[in-house]
Amino acid sequence: MARVVFKTQAPVNAALAGSRRWLTTLGIWGFSAGAGALLLLSVTPLVRREVLVKVPMLGNYYEDKTPESDKPF
């Protein structure tokens, strides 16, 4: 008959083992929330100018090409 052997576990390892299963789910939800926020705020001039123009592949799409004479402010 097999014996049951209990091993002590360090508190840090116990916390990591408990939180490891949630890490992937929280990462997916966090990425989705960030992408949704950028999508909803992409019409805001501050977000467009400070964040979206600086993205390497998408910068040209969000760049403002309106002439200065056509801008109201």
UniProtKB/TrEMBL annotation:
Q: Which UniProt keywords apply?
A: Membrane, Transmembrane, Transmembrane helix
**Per the UniProt entry, what is one GO biological process?**
mitochondrial electron transport, ubiquinol to cytochrome c
Which is an annotated Pfam family here?
QCR10
* Coiled-coil parts of chain: none
Report if keyword rRNA-binding is assigned: no
The record's Gene Ontology cellular component field reads: mitochondrion
Name the InterPro entries for this protein. Cytochrome_b-c1_su10_fun (IPR019182)
TM spans, by residue? 26-47
Source superkingdom: Eukaryota
Record's PANTHER family?
Answer: CYTOCHROME B-C1 COMPLEX SUBUNIT 10 (PTHR28254), CYTOCHROME B-C1 COMPLEX SUBUNIT 10, MITOCHONDRIAL (PTHR28254:SF1)
What is the protein's given name? QCR10 subunit of the ubiqunol-cytochrome c oxidoreductase complex
What phylogenetic lineage does the species belong to? Eukaryota, Fungi, Dikarya, Basidiomycota, Agaricomycotina
